[in-house]
User: Fold TetR family transcriptional regulator from Bradyrhizobium betae.
Amino acid sequence: MRPREFDHDDVLRIAFDQFWRKGVRGTSLSDIARDAGVQRGSLYNAFGSKEALFLQAYERYAGDYLIALQKALSAGSLRKRLTAFLDLTITNFRSGIPPRGCPTTRGLMELGAAEGEGLDDDARQAFANLVSRITALVQDTLSAGAERGEFNGNPAAAALHIITVTRGLAVLERAFGDEPQLRKIAAHTIDLVLGKKGS
Amino acid sequence: MRPREFDHDDVLRIAFDQFWRKGVRGTSLSDIARDAGVQRGSLYNAFGSKEALFLQAYERYAGDYLIALQKALSAGSLRKRLTAFLDLTITNFRSGIPPRGCPTTRGLMELGAAEGEGLDDDARQAFANLVSRITALVQDTLSAGAERGEFNGNPAAAALHIITVTRGLAVLERAFGDEPQLRKIAAHTIDLVLGKKGS
DNA sequence: TCATGTTCTTGACACCGTGTCAAATATTTT
DNA sequence: AAAATATTTGACACGGTGTCAAGAACATGA
Assistant:
């Protein structure tokens, strides 16, 4: 066996970085290969296809992201948790990969827009999976809040609502890029779900 | 002047149909040319580029769509109007072009996902424009409702919230394709904005 | 040490999509 | 009828994805 001349995870990180910044469509395997100091053919050998490479990079991201969201959802009052959750959400698709920042551009895989615009059903599935898991996190938080009397409503419906807003924010971000407006919408959403702040 | 051998508007309709069904990325000018019985080069001559063609087709769609939304927003009680609005929204990105149905696939330009995944800033702008105009329609409806005592809240904030949900629904639709769930979210949103139905 | 097998790498190739261009073509105008 | 003008047509360049065969690097067993 000849050993691989590059690090699998390094490539995944480099690839995701590019996908995030320039979009899946806008990133070619040549770009990634150049950045990673690897031959394009080697990428095909190691990952099979651009899409498969994207999927692996995406799964990696999804894992990190979920952990960060969970952390945001586990501090203080229910209102604080939801605020932190929405803050992180907005920050995330405004800035880049959760851990290391990537300042300028906004990603789009948060939209699940991959499918139809270049990727197939697996990417859609992966995205759906992430959304489901985030929804479960929020619902659990709401349920716990309900037990503590911080919320009286349907946790499942409210969680779904919040997730929907979350995804909508991603779209608006791409359309307008107006962060203050996004934060207003987020605050308004929390008020709607939990009741106005001053009541 | 040699006269054009095809109808400008026919091509626009055919093109949008394909973009809607297969995505912008998934549709080549060859596809459109074949469908329209036109030479590919003629399309470049007439429209300049794939993107320009898309933009024209999109503007056409946006106009029709806005009219349909406005109609939905102008019948009956405020709750009925918003319900009709969300119904049309869901139906729209579930079925196809508003007037003539296109049953199977779901479009994605409703996401403004165009940018980054193949299209540039003009497409983003066009999308942002559509969203703005829809927001204005909803806000006007809410304001009118407020004057009639059917709503007491901030019309601007509520409209923005509804539009955000709307865009989020588009994302969820693409992720899950679960229409009943979408309608539940929509109903829940109306309850949040107007107050629960039975109160 | 050397041969062998396995895996990775490398470069060439086919294919498709976008976009450009010049030559040919069809009308209208003079 | 000739000129002017816009459209059509086919060839071309370019870049991206994906495939393949041949070469290269290592592990193992003799």
Notes: Confidence is low (pLDDT under 50) at residues 97-106 of chain A. Helices of chain A lie at 8-22, 29-36, 40-47, 50-72, 78-95, 121-147, 155-176, 179-194. Residues 1-3, 5, 28-30, 40-41, 44, 49-50 of chain A lie near DNA strand D (CB under 10 Å from a C1').
